[in-house]
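Exercise 7 asks you to align residues with C-alpha cells for two separate proteins.
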Amino acid sequence: MKLILCVPVYNEAEIIQNTILVLKSTLARLPGEVLWEIVIADNGSTDDTHNKVTSILSKEIRFLSIGEKGKGIAIRKTAELCRGDIFGFIDADLPANPDSIHKMVQIITQNQADIAIGLRLMDAKLVHRGFF
C-alpha cells in the first residue's frame, strides 16, 4: 500500500524545509506496510522554494514543477502523475495537524471508508480567519 501526500506550494521558501521534516517524521511512524512519498507541487514560485526543496530531496521526497497556476491544478496534476493507493494533500503551512494522517490512513487501509477528510475546526479565539 502506498500513500502519495501532495503539498501544493507557491513561494514557501521560508517554511518548506521545516514542513518536509515534520511530514517525514509523521509519515515515518506509519505502519511498515504503508509506503509513502511526499510530492512538493510547485505552482510557479518566484522565490527560493525550488532550491530549498531540492537541497533535501530523498527517495521519499519528489519535486514537481506545475506549469499552470492554481492550488487545485497543482493537486490534480500531482494525482494524475503519481501512482499510489491512497492520495492526500496538505497545505505547506500545516494548518491541519499532520498526526491526523495516521487515523485517516488507518480508516482507509482497514476498508472502513473510501475517503477520509480532515477538518481543522478550532476555537475561533485561537485562529483569526478573514472573510475570504
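Second protein for Exercise 7:
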Amino acid sequence: MLSFQPYYDPTPESNWNQIFIKKGVFTNEMISHLENTVLPEYGFSKGRTGARELGNDTDSYQTNNRDIAYIQPNDKSHWMYDLLFPIALEANQMYYGFDIDIVTDPIHYVIYPEDGGHLDWHMDNGAYGTNRRKLAMTVQLSDYNDYEGGDFQIWGGGKDFVTLPREKGDVVVFPTFLLHRVTPITKGIRKCLVFWTGGRPFK
C-alpha cells in the first residue's frame, strides 16, 4: 500500500512573497557621480521587457514608455556592481534561499519620461536568457517629490498590490516571478537603476 510522508526541510522557512528594502544605500554624492562620470559613456534607447529585450519580438514597446542606458561593468562602473551584488545576497539569505551566483544583465539606468512614462504588469523572468534571473533589484534615484504618478507596484493576487516606498537612494529586492508595474508618470520624470542576479534556471 502506498503511504504519504510529508516533506520536512529543517532549514529556515523562506518567504518568496517578501519584499526586501534597504534604506539610503545610494547617497546624493553617489548619484551625482553616477550621472556625471559613468552615464555620459552610454546612450539611451527605448526599453523592451523581459525576453523581448533579447530581440524575440517587436511589440513590447506598446507595454512601456521608458528610456534605458545599459551600463556594462568597467573601471568607472564596477563600484555599483560591487555595492549591489552583496545586497542581493543579503536579501537572498534573509528571505529567499535561491541559488544565486551571477549577475545576469548589465545594470539598467532607466528614465520614465513625463509624457506618460510607464511599465505595464510583467515578470522579469521567463523565456530565453531571462530564465536565469531570480532576484530583481530597483534603486530609486529620484527624490519622491520630483515626479507625480510613477508608482512602483507589486501584485499580490486579486485586487491586492503593494505600492513601494519612493525615497531617494533606497534599494528594493524581490523575486523575478512577482508581477510588477510602474504606473504612468503625470508630471516630472522618474529615474532608477534596475539590476538582476541569478544562476541556473529554477527547477
